[in-house]
Amino acid sequence: MGDGPSFEEVSSIAQNILGRVKHRPKIGIVCGSGLGGLADDVQDAEILPYSEIPTFPVSTVPGHMGKLVFGILEGKTVVLMRGRLHCYEGYPMWKTTIPIRVMKALGVTTIFLTNAAGGINPDFNVGDMMIIRDHIDLPGLTGECVLRGANDERFGPRFLATVDTYDPELRATCKKVFQDLGLSQLMREGTYVMIGGPTFETVAESRLLKAFGGDSVGMSTVAEAIVARHMGMRVFGLSLITDMCCLSYDTANHTTHEEVLAIGQKRAEDLKAIVMRLLKDTTVE
Ligand SMILES: O=P(O)(O)O[C@H]1O[C@H](CO)[C@@H](O)[C@H]1O
Ligand SMILES: Nc1nc2[nH]cnc2c(=O)[nH]1
């Protein structure tokens, strides 16, 4: 096989995990930069650091602890990735999504992807939350799609339709959650653009992404969503807007990761409330 991982490797990681935890989650949650606080509310938690799972890739970015957290949230059995993997850490794209393939092998059928993202849409404000309606896979469009390489049909099909990557029913449920919690003023919906990073965008790049139809931008999520859909999982995505992209040379501010983490911390409680209520209102088979 060319670009991996092999079905056997994924199965073997899942078997290792299943032998060590009692929980059998149907829902997986990926915590974005600075958004790991969700894991603090997990009841009856079982925690596995990535470094203690044979062949599992490890997180190296501040704000990503690198732990799988199994347990109960809002009455649902879940597994959280407290820390994700990014290409700019040096991983090939396929390797960043090994945990998603492992989640499926563990029995997960629905996945919530959260991220910290820059706002491209000028109507957005820092602290808004954007339900991901669609994405632009910039690496994929330029030949680095996460599904590049030999395809193993046991994972999914060679050619994958990606319209409706983000489950319409889960999006509708989440919109209602914002309303019910009185947080409608923070709710946005739009298109997330994945860039490779680790550089934040230049002014010219931000203008390009806007012209492409992007509403938010970050360095993750899209490959995870594609791989999850490749295996037939239901996907929901939510971006916390941590800063606004510079569309003018006159107002150029310098985004920092510290700023991203600080907004994550500031908005942690609202984000947690939304995800928890969404969990409560989501039915899984
Ligand atoms: O997408 P998450 O993991 O939330 O992290 C976002 O925040 C980091 C930049 O501050 C980048 O890794 C970007 O992708
Ligand atoms: N501008 C910008 N802000 C972010 N916040 C989190 N990720 C990003 C990104 O890729 N770009």
Automatic annotation (TrEMBL):
Any Gene Ontology CC annotation: cytoplasm
Subunit structure: Homotrimer.
Lineage: Eukaryota, Metazoa, Spiralia, Lophotrochozoa, Mollusca
Nucleoside phosphorylase domain sequence ranges: 26-280
Organism per entry: Magallana gigas
NCBIfam families in UniProt: PNPH, PNPH-PUNA-XAPA, PRK08202.1
Database matches in Pfam families: PNP_UDP_1
Single annotated GO MF: purine-nucleoside phosphorylase activity
GO biological process, one term: purine ribonucleoside salvage
Catalysed reaction equations from the record: 2'-deoxyguanosine + phosphate = 2-deoxy-alpha-D-ribose 1-phosphate + guanine; inosine + phosphate = alpha-D-ribose 1-phosphate + hypoxanthine; 2'-deoxyinosine + phosphate = 2-deoxy-alpha-D-ribose 1-phosphate + hypoxanthine; guanosine + phosphate = alpha-D-ribose 1-phosphate + guanine
Keyword rRNA processing attached: no
Name of the protein in question: Purine nucleoside phosphorylase
